[in-house]
Amino acid sequence: MPHDFEALTDEQLVERSRAGDMVAFEELVSRFETRIYRFALHSCRRPEDAAEITQDTFVRAWRAFDRFDGSRTLAPWLFAIARRLCIDHHRRRPEPTEVLSEQPEIAAEPGAEVAHDGESDVSWNCARSVLSPNQFHALWLRYAEDMDVVGIARALGLTRTHVKVLLFRARKSLARQLSPHAGHNPKSYENLAEHFCRI
Hints:
Elements: H1 3-6, H2 10-18, H3 22-44, H4 47-64, H5 74-92, H6 118-130, H7 133-143, H8 149-156, H9 160-177, H10 186-198
């Protein structure tokens, strides 16, 4: 990839992609593919579905670049597309019963080089099992993507106040559901909290 493209911001790459520059678009895909894939994988839990959602996200983004507001950051816009595709996926297909970490075929999927360590997966699987979809997505974008409240609000199509409430309730739900009084190992929540503090 040419160094001049690597030096461009995401938004500048969008402008070049709008003009039909496929090299610029490829640079955007390389920046976001694994991030979108991880988000989709932890939302739908099937590697093959996550790969399809990732591909569809970039196809839809390419077609909609003319509607992207270049004064805003790209990441929330892309994750908004991915999230809508995840929601559509859940409406079409039932929830898989197997846990994400038990799927060895993930190594053969696009984006498999993403950090996929067991501790991280266990933490996010715990969160996903006790949170609503909106709470989980808000928590993911905040901690896995280090996205601020404004960006999360744009990605989820919610107000900033609503996002703050989602994050507060998500943390509260995790504390309640994973506490020793709820029948969980007290170390489980300590590990989970520590994970969310450092990612």
